[in-house]
Amino acid sequence: MAAIRDTRIDSGFADEAARAVGQATKHLVQPWPFAGSVGDEARTFVTDGDGIYITDGDGRRLIDGPAGMWCTNVGHRRKELAEVMYEQAMALSYNTPWYTMSSPSAELAERLAGHAPGDLNHVFFTTGGSSAVETALRFMQFYNNVRGRPDKKLILSRGGAYHGSTYLSASLNGRPRDADWMDGADALVTKLTAPNPFRRPAGVSKEGFADFLVEEFRNAVARLGADRIGAFVGEPVQASGGVIVPPETYLPRIREICRENDILYVSDEVVTGFGRLGHVFASKDVFGVEPDMITFAKGVTSGYFPLGGVMISERLLQDLRRSNHPEAMFGHGLTYTSHPIGCAVALKNLDLLEGGILDHARTVGAYFQQEMKALEDLPLVGEVRGLGLMACVECVADRESNDPLQLDKNVGRRIDAHCQALGLLVRPLINMCVMSPPLIITREQVDDLVGILREGISRTMDDLRREGVWRG
Prior knowledge:
The protein is of the alpha/beta class.
């Protein structure tokens, strides 16, 4: 492991940072604010990025541990992506998707169909992950209306899930506290147990946990009625829920139940797609599942331009074409659907992924998991879990409660603060630290990341002992 070093550099960022903080606290509403500070909040100020690094307002060079928001897959400051944005903007900056189309969107649709599993040969482009999930759900509703099944609209989701911030997509979310003060389409959604072996029910073995989850799913279908359930929506790995990797046999078995009961299986690959698990789409290549729809966003452009989409099965479109309602209109669209700049960036991003980054991600991902797992020797760490280039360190201060909301809710933030001082940006989630670095990270940089994270956790343990709130 490389030595932990002072990452502060001589720079003139202080004035720029102070100005931005003043502007933000007067005018900027940040995502996920608390009522007591809404519209009056400044967060870590970032000035620039390069490769796996970003620079903060104090001039410190930090490893971008979360890769932005799971999305900067090919790294910061990729000249190829910047150039294609400029070139496409100069050629065609925008076209309405209602009555025109452009070459980048058509070419990207073909490229993605080549990577998607089974007969997912069609794509509807959106502006991001939330709008992608929203589109998939609205398509499910339209599909069942056209087929004469207006009551088949219920949706199965899971505890720990995160699917977005638009109305229907947010209604699926199952993380603690997400919906405490927010409304949702609760009558449409049934949430099942999170497929989290670490937090499995008392008395259930690891081997029996998959059976428990599958039986719960079957019971839900029987209770609600297959003729009323339109879709199951699930992330292959629950990302923002704490990088929850399900039991090995769980997803294929759920897929089979959906097929038996004519329930659309929607695989939410907003995070797991485009290299995070070493493949463009992970549903089939990693988990052996061929869904009816796949939602994606984030890594499709590596965060350089807002873009998302839904891969749709050929079978579903054929069902619509064969229906008795050829006049039925899918009344759904977005101003920036099939945006030519976004699609052009995605094409170049695919070139980079296919040109070696996917292979590298599969190789370095195994090393990343190995080194992260070693953090379990720290007394505060309850579990390190993950897959590919995504991992979560779950800290457990009170091992008797088995309830993360009863722990010190600031443990993740404490660790992040120490790590930022040492040169690493962490994504803190209550008592968890999530890592999902750019796919271009090297083994040496993995050593740096893990070493800083270890030191940040160790310093946090010292803080808790000194304050007398933890004796571990």
